[in-house]
Design brief:
The complex is a heterodimer of chains A (210) and B (294). With 210 residues, chain A is mainly α. Chain A contains 7 helices and no strands. The mean pLDDT of chain A is 87. Chain B folds into 2 domains: 2-36 and 268-292; 45-156 and 185-257, Rossmann fold, CATH 3.40.50. Helices cover 51% and strands 13% of the residues of chain B. In chain B, the strands form 2 sheets. In chain B, strands 5-2-1-6-7-8 form a 6-stranded parallel β-sheet, sandwiched between helices. Chain B starts with a helix and ends with a helix. Classes of the chains: A mainly alpha (210), B alpha/beta (294).
Chain lengths: 210, 294
């Protein structure tokens, strides 16, 4: 029963959603809308579960003083800080103005944005280092890759742009496009096959080990 | 150390400490920011089509601007948002804004506040003078905010925006906003421009463009761009801005140079530095192989 009910639900709703996608009738679209509402409601439970998991995992790290447990304080402070400053109550003079509040905006603009930007900026340095170590003309194919990459990179440099831009555009629009199309076709067919396997109960990994 | 001293010049080049690479790149990035340099950015066809499509809109028509990126993609994608939003506001084209990535609302709000300020000043673009004017929330734009499960939200908006956004980001009923008065679903807007640094863009293509036949253009990070050229070729998307270059091309077309044009010179020099390192590494590689007779 524990396995049969989820399998039956997936089978019924899988085919139903698939059918609704292709039925343009108003009644069918209303059913579709209701289904979408249900997905949001179910999603809220997943959110609650996620928050609960984050709290318990980090409290456990602090309690047992596991490696780098101090960072768990920052995680929990961030979580509760953003929730508290994101609350809205107490009228116009209150400091709790929801997402428009001074603290919420400054947490976002002055802490979150610089952190994200810094992390992403570091990529440039790692890419440079990786290119230095890995981009070597070891074979004919590696040499083609190397030359292609260099042409695409220098396509905007003032003195050579006139000559490199058409070649770079050709690389992007012809060989790149052909390879990507082939990959996407394969991915698309794979998605259809996996979807059918899930709906038909052949693929059951989503139910865990039980 | 003694081991390293026994190695030849080419071997030492190949084993260069990566901290030297970091240091040189940092110096190049910081110093070139202050060097005045004009990088030529001729507009590509895929960027030109987006510019032309917006330029061809009449006053009062509406577009949906999807700001689906987090702060990590800010450097590449914020300039696109800024330049398109300002172009629409100057032309009195209504902008409906959504953010379907978790940190997107913060990015959207930052852009809205900045562009509302800059549009208050008169300015001339491509020979056309626009007087400064006050941009009013609910009249010139509506910011719908964030909802989880972007695939469902994008599908839902095809039926009615109110399915998922009964209220806007500021908790105002959508029905009370003048800009949303005649807007039910995608049929009532001219196009969607998705500026994205994540897989939200796939849902816009699969559900909005494929299912509801929405006219869709994309603004993407540099690394994502090559993946989405097939959709441009098939006509599923009508325009594509790729990375900082795409943003710079748009800024040039809009005659509104900003963060992207500034960033291009840094990017060009950084790329040249990386190329120089690759060449040096290859000299080391071939030199050491030749020495060993390989």
């Amino acid at each position: 029963m524990k396995r049969q009910i989820p399998l039956a639900l997936v089978f019924i709703f899988g085919w139903l959603m698939l059918a609704l996608y292709f039925i343009p009738l108003e009644g069918a679209q209303k059913v579709n809308e209701n289904m979408l509402d249900w997905t949001s409601i179910i999603g809220i439970f997943a959110l609650a579960l996620g928050i609960w998991s984050l709290i318990t995992v980090n409290l456990d790290r602090i309690k047992h003083k596991k490696r780098d447990w101090q960072y768990s304080f920052i995680t929990l402070f961030g979580l509760f800080g953003m929730i508290i400053f994101g609350l809205k109550f107490g009228g116009e003079n209150s400091m709790f103005q929801g997402q428009e509040s001074y603290m919420f905006r400054h947490f976002f603009n002055d802490i979150l944005i610089p952190i994200y930007s810094t992390m992403f900026s570091l990529l440039a340095f790692f890419i440079a280092s990786a290119a230095y170590r890995a981009f070597r003309a070891r074979s004919a194919l590696a040499s083609i890759l190397l030359i292609g990459a260099i042409i695409v990179m220098i396509r905007f440099f003032p003195f050579v742009a006139e000559y490199t831009r058409p070649v770079a555009d050709w690389i992007l629009n012809v060989p790149n496009l052909a390879a990507k199309r082939a990959i996407w076709m394969g991915v698309g067919l794979g998605i259809v096959a996996t979807g059918l396997k899930v709906i038909l109960g052949i693929e059951r990994a989503y139910m865990g080990r039980d | 150390m003694s081991n390293n001293s026994n190695k030849g010049f080419f071997d030492r080049v190949m084993l260069l400490d990566r901290r030297w690479v970091f240091l040189v790149l940092a110096v190049v990035v910081v110093s070139t920011y202050y060097i005045p340099m004009n990088v030529p950015v001729p507009a590509s066809r895929e960027v030109q089509t987006i510019f032309d499509a917006i330029e061809g809109l009449e006053e009062g028509q509406k577009i949906l601007l999807a700001i689906d990126y987090d702060p990590n993609a800010l450097a590449e994608l914020h300039p696109m948002t800024y330049v398109i939003m300002e172009q629409c506001f100057r032309k009195k084209v209504g902008v409906i804004i959504t953010s379907l990535s978790q940190n997107g609302p913060g990015m959207a709000e930052q852009a809205i506040l900045d562009i509302v300020d800059s549009t208050a000043l008169p300015k001339t673009y491509n020979g056309v003078s626009y007087p400064g004017r006050e941009i009013v929330n609910g009249v010139d734009y509506a910011f719908l905010g964030y909802r989880a499960y972007f695939e469902l939200v994008i599908t839902g908006m095809g039926q009615n925006f109110r399915t998922f956004f009964s209220r806007d980001y500021y908790d105002v009923l959508l029905d009370s906003l003048p800009i949303m008065k005649d807007v039910q679903n995608y049929d009532d807007i001219e196009m969607v421009i998705d500026i994205s640094g994540s897989n939200v863009v796939d849902a816009w293509i699969k559900y909005a463009a494929a299912r509801y036949d929405v006219k869709l253009a994309l603004g993407l990070t540099g690394v994502m761009t090559a993946d989405y050229y097939p959709y441009l070729g098939s006509g599923r998307v009508f325009g594509l801005m790729g990375g900082l270059l795409g943003a710079a091309e748009y800024e040039r077309l809009a005659d509104n140079p900003g963060l992207a044009m500034d960033g291009m010179k840094v990017q060009v020099w950084a790329h040249l530095t990386i190329i120089a390192f690759i060449i040096i590494a290859n000299i080391g590689y071939f030199g050491s192989h030749k020495k060993r007779g390989l």
